[in-house]
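**Protein fold record**
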Amino acid sequence: MKKWLPALITLSIIACFLGVYIGSVNVSPSDVTGSIYYGIKSVLARLFPSIEAGEEPKYFIIIWKLRLPRVLLAYLVGMSLASAGVASQALFKNPLADPYIIGVSAGAGIGAALAAIYAPAHMGAFALVFAIISVFVVYSVSKVDGHIPVDTLLLAGIAYGFLASAITWYLVISQGEKAHVTWMWLMGTFNGSDWDDVGEMFIIALFGVGFLLSRWRELNLILFGEESIALGLDVHLYRKLFIGVIALLTAFAVSTAGIIGFVGLVSPHIVRLILGPNHRELTPASALFGGVLLVMADLLARTVAKPTELPVGIITALMGAPFFLYLLMKHKRGELYS
């Protein structure tokens, strides 16, 4: 077993425990473990009537129904964005690429802004639909003779992003005093997360992250571009598959929690500096570290300005922007590898 795997699993458990333990209401470690134990027994009791759940702990509602689903959702979203970031950097052969580069976040912003006006209860669904539509638009514009040149895809994504952002901000401004909810969503938030969100995100993460984990060889080979054809890789096929998986993971992450920047950029680079560029280790380690990163960012968002809750996107931007500038400086000096 690789040494980094138990270390990252332990770090994940610690981060998730802290996320559940720390909050506006003071609880003890035994309250956390007791509530989680009771919650698991309650689920089993519904499946197997012979099992008795026992007496409900004092802070069960706070821990099991509010904090735990929020922490688990943050972890799954972090895993998804980090995994999509790894694939994006390999696909574009650009160490500064992130999963939002193909227009996912821009389209989701339009959907969220429209939902805030016409269907506030369905903001996530609107964001998801428009994110997927946006990927198809960028994909179609980029296609040349049935193939998708990465440079064209990159430029199309950037151009579409500017257009979609302009539409989004117009819609937000037109909402007047009702714009607060959209503002919060656009900057990222896990407020109001529930177990249904966790279940949906788990299924998507299981499929998307699992696919990328199983295709680490192809991710290594695709870095060689057209030279990979000589090595037996169908570059055009895998390029389409990776674009689809990146779009799927990012669209669901954005529709669930809003636009949270830099996780898909920072996590792969930190891991790459430690473990190297081989996707056999880079992809799973980045996924686990991305989960930890976003759980801790959400914890800071909830606690750093108590009693006010900050959008988690502000925290990730404060952490990620300086790191991005550092990467940009290294890239300019030719010191940054992909």
The CA atoms of residues 70 and 193 lie 5 Å apart.
